[in-house]
Amino acid sequence: MFWKKKKKPTDPISISELDDQRSAFRYVFRPEHRLSMTFKGRAVTILDISAGGLACTDKGFKKYDIDRVTLNLKVPNQDEKSVLKAEVRILHLTRDDKCHCIFENCTVDEYEIIHKYVLEMQKQDLKRQAP
Q1: Which of 98, 106, 110, 128 could form a disulfide with 94 if both were Cys (CB 3.0 to 4.6 A apart)?
Q2: What is the SS3 assignment for 115?
Q3: For 101-130, what is each residue's pLDDT tens digit?
Q4: CA distance to 19, 44, 131, per residue, from 49 (Å)
Q5: 17, pLDDT greater than 70
Q6: Residue percentage of the chain with pLDDT more than 70
C-alpha cells in the first residue's frame, strides 16, 4: 500500500515580487549612458539588457525580425572590452516605439559576459547612490 506524501504549504508569490525578480537581472540604462547598436542596417539605442535579451528603440521593424549584432560592453572593473556577438530577434513591439528582443544562439561564455556586465553595472550604480 502506498501513501501519498503531504505537500508542504507554500506562500503565494505576488506579481510585484515577480517583477522585482525580473529587474534584479536586468540593467536599465540611464538616458545619458545608453549603448547603441546596428540592427538591420539601422542605428538603435539599447534601453535595457539582460542575459535573455534587450529592449531597444523601434525604427520601423517587424515582429520576429532577426539580425546578428555586435555589442562592445565595457564591464566596470575590467580592463578590456567584452565583445558580444549574438543574434537578436524581436519578440514584441510596443506602441511607444520599443522593441523587446531575445538573444539567440549564444554560447555559455556569451551569456556569462552579459551576466557579468549586468552585475557590475548594478554594483556601480549602487556605489553612486550610497551616501
Answers
A1: 98
A2: helix
A3: 999 999 998 888 899 999 999 999 888 887
A4: 15, 13, 27
A5: no
A6: 81
The three-class DSSP label of residue 13 is coil
> How far is 96 from 116, CA to CA, in rounded Å?
30
H/E run at residue 119: helix 108-129
Report the alpha-carbon distance of residue 9 to residue 89 in Å, rounded. Answer: 40
Q: Where are the beta strands (DSSP E) in 1-131?
A: 26-28, 36-39, 42-50, 53-57, 66-73, 82-93, 98-104
Beta carbons within 8 Å of 107's beta carbon, 6+ residues apart: none
Q: Tell me if 70 sits within 8 A of 28, measured CB to CB.
A: no
Q: How far lies 56's CA from each of 20, 44, 96, 98, in Å?
A: 21, 6, 11, 6
**Secondary structure letter of residue 108 according to DSSP:** H
Residue 102 burial class via C-beta count within 10 angstroms: exposed 0-12, middle 13-18, buried 19 and up: middle
Q: Which helix (H) or strand (E) holds 79?
A: none
pLDDT at site 44: 97
pLDDT at residue 82 greater than cutoff 80: yes
